[in-house]
């Protein structure tokens, strides 16, 4: 779960499993921050070269012993609430959990050390754990300034959940954000940074696990779409589009046997699929998956404009959602 801001697409992922000559498809868990981040540039601050004191270097636990969504490529040590308490650098919640459909809570980063702490306050993350795996939800884009938290100071983020709102691309805020379309389950809020006596390559992760109480969300197509059944295929078009469609986004249920050897299968959850990517106007997988029924094998989204998918237009993409495996492709109708 890489905490760096990647300049990449959602196709650039953390791969679970081996690559190379393995004849079986790879499984990719969509856990990383893989959308294009803002390129806003702010003045950076130079850290000192003094060695990090042991009491700061040994905060929390090694990343492999922490039950929060970090890995060894993103941080060295982790302070994870509620297991690690009483640390001089701590992220703590104002609540035990949140209740759907609307609720809010605050996460406070307290620096009770004698050193200045560096972080990007926009670069927090919200994750959901499903079947033992953490999936990154929001934000999908954020600016990249460098903030400082002086010794003895606090910084707060407020997370508001409002499922009555439409899901957004998840633009980050320095003090939190409102997030729509979350389902019940276990979540984590996290941020990372480093001390003035260290450097950004030796980061400390701070996380809070909490529960969201409520029903799971369902993928529902946009209101302006209508589907027409043709045998086991559903053709979906926009209600207000008069021009003849020129492209189709095709999603076909194929099963694992339909995935070519060596091709990755991308595991996704509803809270990810419901949101459009920062560069896209529509959540294509949400709109297509919403029209699948037990006896439907293929859904075609057709429109009189080019699609902007999460994958290369000359590639095929394999998705696992809710136990089924799908092949996605973009084809010309000219």
Overview of the molecule:
With 334 residues, the protein is mainly beta. It folds into 2 domains: 37-213, no CATH class; 225-332, no CATH class. Helices cover 4% and strands 38% of the residues. The protein is built from 3 helices and 22 strands. The protein has helices at 54-57, 270-273, 284-289, and strands at 15-16, 26-29, 61-62, 77-81, 89-93, 97-99, 102-111, 117-119, 125-130, 133-138, 147-149, 154-162, 176-179, 185-195, 204-213, 225-230, 233-238, 247-253, 264-267, 298-303, 317-321, 324-332. Strands 1-2-19-21-22-18-20-17-16 form a 9-stranded mixed β-sheet. Strands 3, 4, 6, 8, 9, 10, 11, 14 and 15 form a 9-stranded mixed β-sheet that branches. It has a 4-stranded mixed β-sheet with strand order 5-7-12-13, with no helix packed on it. It is elongated and about 70 Å long. Mean pLDDT is 85; it is low at 1-24 and 34-49.
Indicate the radius of gyration in whole angstroms: 21 Å
Number of helical segments with 4 or more residues: 3
Number of strands: 22
Low-confidence stretches: 1-24, 34-49
- SSE-based structural type: mainly beta
Helical fraction equals: under 10%
Shape annotation: elongated
- Strand order across the largest sheet: 1-2-19-21-22-18-20-17-16
Query: What is the makeup of the main sheet?
Result: 9 strands, mixed
N-end to C-end Cα span: 41 Å
How big a fraction of the residues is strand? 35-45%
Q: How many domains make up the 3D coordinates?
A: 2
């Amino acid at each position: 779960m890489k905490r760096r801001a990647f300049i990449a697409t959602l196709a650039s992922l953390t791969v679970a499993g081996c690559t190379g000559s393995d004849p079986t498809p790879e499984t990719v868990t969509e856990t990383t921050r893989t959308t294009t981040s803002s390129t806003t540039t702010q003045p950076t601050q130079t850290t000192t070269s003094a060695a990090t004191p042991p009491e700061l270097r040994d905060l929390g636990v090694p990343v492999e012993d922490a039950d929060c969504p970090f890995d060894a490529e993103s941080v060295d040590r982790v302070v994870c609430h509620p297991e690690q308490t009483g640390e001089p650098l701590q992220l703590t919640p104002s609540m035990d959990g949140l209740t759907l459909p609307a609720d809010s809570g605050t996460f406070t980063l307290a620096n009770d050390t004698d050193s200045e702490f560096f972080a990007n306050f926009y670069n927090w993350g919200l994750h959901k754990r499903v079947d033992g795996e953490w999936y990154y939800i929001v934000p999908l884009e954020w600016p990249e300034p460098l903030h400082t938290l002086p010794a003895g100071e606090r910084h707060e983020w407020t997370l508001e959940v409002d499922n009555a709102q439409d899901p957004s691309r998840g633009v980050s805020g320095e003090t939190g954000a409102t997030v729509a379309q979350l389902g019940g389950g276990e979540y984590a809020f996290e941020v990372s940074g480093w001390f003035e006596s260290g450097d950004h390559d030796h980061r400390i992760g701070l996380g809070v696990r909490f529960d969201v109480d409520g029903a799971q969300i369902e993928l529902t197509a946009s209101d302006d779409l209508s589907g027409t059944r043709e045998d086991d295929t559903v053709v979906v078009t926009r209600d207000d589009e008069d021009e003849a469609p020129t492209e189709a986004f095709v999603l076909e249920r194929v099963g694992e046997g339909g995935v070519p050897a060596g091709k990755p299968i991308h595991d996704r959850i509803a809270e990810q699929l419901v949101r459009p990517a920062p560069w896209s106007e529509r959540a294509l997988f949400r709109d297509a998956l919403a029209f699948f029924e037990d006896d439907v094998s293929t859904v075609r989204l057709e429109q009189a404009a080019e699609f902007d998918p999460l994958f290369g237009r000359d590639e095929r993409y394999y998705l696992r959602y809710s136990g089924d495996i799908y092949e996605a492709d973009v084809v010309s109708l000219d």
